[in-house]
Fold this protein.
Amino acid sequence: MFETERLIIKKLEPEDLPWLIELRVPDAVNRYMGGPAMQNAEALTKRLPFYLECHEKFGFGFSTMTLRSTGEMIGTSGLQPLEESGEIEVGYNLAEKYWRQGFGFECAYAWLKYGFETAGLERIVAVCHPDNVGSWRIMEKCGMTYERTDDHYGMDCLFYAITRDQFLKPAHDDVSIRLG
């Protein structure tokens, strides 16, 4: 799909399911991903078709993140419809050993850029559990604004959003993407 300075972002494929399950098994990673209903192999197996259908329907969806330097898959990120509202949501998750290294911001900002500049979206939202401080800080660093707290994925979540006009005045335009 595209590359950033340090990441290769590619469409999630059916053969990625075992890796996806392994990525989300550790409690530190899965406790905030999709709520209680998405914290097991069976649920992820049922969810995979949704991820794949998003790519077919919209031209974007949840994707793998691979380090350009080593080829190691380190997480997932992407744009997809938020189930409750249908608004397009940016999401990201990383294996714990890659936290606090700027990858979350790099992928989230790149997806916002892709969504607004390539996919022609007008507004993108993001949600996270209030205790997931790293995630909502990434949203704020990307220029997203807190709007409310709502129920999403079966849990209370902070709800952030950004419009195309807000994004076109970026504070961090040093994140570049190369479409592939």
